[in-house]
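Following up on my earlier message about N-carbamoyl-L-aspartate. Here are the inputs again, as you asked, copied directly from the submission form:
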Amino acid sequence: MNFVGSHILSVSQFDRSAIEQVFDVADDMAPYAHRQRVTRVLEGAILGNMFFEPSTRTRVSFGCAWNLLGGEVRETTEVKTSAIAKGESFYDTARVLSGYSDMIVMRHQQEGSVEEFASASRVPVINGGDGANEHPSQALLDLYTIRKEMAARGKGIDQLRIALVGDLRYGRAVHSLCKLLSLYSDIQFMLVSPPELRLSDEYLDGIRTAGHQVIESGDLQAGIRGADILYVTRTQEERFPSQQDADKYRGLFRLNQSIYTENCEPNTVIMHPLPRDSREEANELDNDLNENPNLAIFRQTDNGVLIRMALFTLILDVVHQVEQTAKDVNWYTAKRF
Ligand code: NCD
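Thanks, got it. Here's what our run produced:
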């Protein structure tokens, strides 16, 4: 895959060697993301960070990743403060904003919106999530995390047993992750969801055609037994036809320490793309797991910066120049990585 100047719209663009390339560069970004070194390689470059749907970590980590490479970030965070609210098309918005920025990251509630936007953009565009469709950078950081966590347990990604729990119908992070995992061998997909929120046939067919095993379950405890990784998700309430529809699924699956202890081997990894819905009536991932060393959710968010720095440097063709402008940091850095 040639990254230089390309849009990142779907994980379907990646093969295993492209993934390895991203992961290798991500590894090299650690001194910068971990505040040991600073680089100015993107000095003068501008990122247009356009988030038309709520976001904390995706928006901020894309922005931080760009800043850590020395670039500046311009943000639009709501439809109502942008000209899209006045009826402007994606085409016009893309033509305009791509004149102001060197790269654009966009999130929008409509499936296919980022692709439409990218086709009119004069600079590379990264999909930060388009409706229930895809979330490529999330899947890459999830897979990177899976690889690291499994390596620490003496295993690889091939033959992985992963339980995907919750809203598999509307969860775009799950959709992209299933596609990426399908590139590996002998994956056991343990799908745990209410029947109405099952993974759709489009994704199931892709998994099965690639030769992997699918086991579906409507029961949390039975469904997670024997997994290497538990990947828990939030009910994507904002994608349901009405709040009343969404309410039916709130709190159906709640993973806590006692369910984990009873059903999982002691080193089973716990992941979640976040945000977890910590309201009492939802609570799909209980706070009593916070001290569990297998809870990888904040390692995922830290890894997100590495992956996004890797995408930026690959697309802008500066991978080999990062170190040229680098120096050690000279401020106090709290130990957190
Ligand atoms: C996810 C998303 O927006 O798709 N969040 C994220 O980007 N980390 C998952 C979610 O919102 O539940």
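One observation from looking it over: The domain at 11-134+301-328 is CATH 3.40.50.1370 (Rossmann fold). Hope that helps, and feel free to reply on this thread.
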